[in-house]
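To: structure subgroup
Subject: Chain for Friday's discussion

All,

I'm putting the inputs and outputs inline so they're searchable in the archive.
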Amino acid sequence: MDPDPLSGLFYPVFLSAQPDGFAILGALLLLALLFVSALVSGSEIAFFSFQPADISDLEQANDRKSKRMLNLIRAPRLLLATILITNNLVNVAIVVLSELYLRRVLPQERMQQWAYYIIDRLQWNLTVWQVVEALNFAIAVIGVTFILVLVGEVMPKVLAYADYKKFARRMTPLLHLLRKLFYGPALLLVRWGHAIEKRLATQISNNDISKEDIDKAIDLTTHGTTAAEEEAGLLKSIVKFGDITVKEIMQPRIDIKALDWDMAYDEVLDLIKETGFSRFPVFKENIDNIHGMLYVKDLIGFFREKPGFKWQNLVRKEVKYVPDSKLIVDLLKEFKIERVHMAIVIDEYGATEGLVTLEDIMEEVVGDIQDEFDEDEDVDYRKINDYIYVFDGKTLISEFCKIVNIDPDYFDNVRDEADSLAGMILEVNGDFPKKGTEIEIKGFKFKVLSMGKRRIGEIRVTLPHQGKEKTSAA
């Protein structure tokens, strides 16, 4: 028995007076396959890290390699299938060759020597064959898998991501060749994937779950506690979030706090102090002619300037306009990408219809967000008793429905395009009502308590006698 059997692991390959040609060739081939596996794995990260701007640069380049890169990127599924087929074939080859290599350089006799040595040193109560099997598993499975994952998967992907453009460019010729070589199997995988997706999409469409069903499922999770009801309300808001349009949450035109281009600087400061807002639209002549946005933070350092200070020089020209029909989920994505917090809502004729902010969107999920400038109490309505309320005419119908605990689409078939209580009354009445006019709409009695020159002021609302909790969409 050798004095130290473990020292002979690489002896048959590198230290023999007559080297084993198969062992040396096998080691070199394993290293080559491992290198190929690393390159192909890194290519997956490199090619799929390209951004739209990077693709635009490739489109403008005229060299042959850029065109080939663009050709690969424009067929992502075929590229991914090619990479996966190549990677799996190489990894299988590594595993098989590793097994043959280890049997050649580590014959059974040597494994038995190691087993005797381990049993003798550690005083294990195991048979030689049990230790031999454990050694075979540790070397052939754990060892090879660790090296394959670390060197063939993790490391190359980390390195490729660090400089994905250069890595992708260098790998383009190889992947171009591999796609031609495995085009048939790759195309078969892509078509198979399309077929599965289509079948799953059909099954999902045939088993569509309505939002009402989801609401009922959420209600089942509540157990009467305040915390559970708040969580359920949050979940319902998230479910309905994707169907809400900008028009439903915007601040209407009449409530927009904007700056006239010709305002004196002291008037601007007074409005900022009065409202506490951080951004203001700036218009010339009328609110339909928005000239830019004034950010209050841009005024820092100029608060002590004289009334003649040209604050207009600080107005930012970038103004975001959105149609009233845009979904707020899409607008939220645009706000995030463009890094803006406010947009002007326009109607089909391009006239200013309202204003929407990031806070307005977030409040649709989490509820009212109170900051240091907001009032502690909501002054838009007063509750007289369980069945009588007084609302401001500009109150949104969606907010009214929340307060009186009815379905948000309860008035959809009568309000037409109206979003506020005043708008719905005008739609149903057909003309401006007089003070004291009383209109009944789907069981609710609306009485006009005050009228301005061109708008309805306060409205008294009497709920149906059967109870607000039982009222639902008809």
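Points worth raising on Friday:
The first strand starts at residue 251 and ends at 252.
The longest helix spans residues 128-162.

D.
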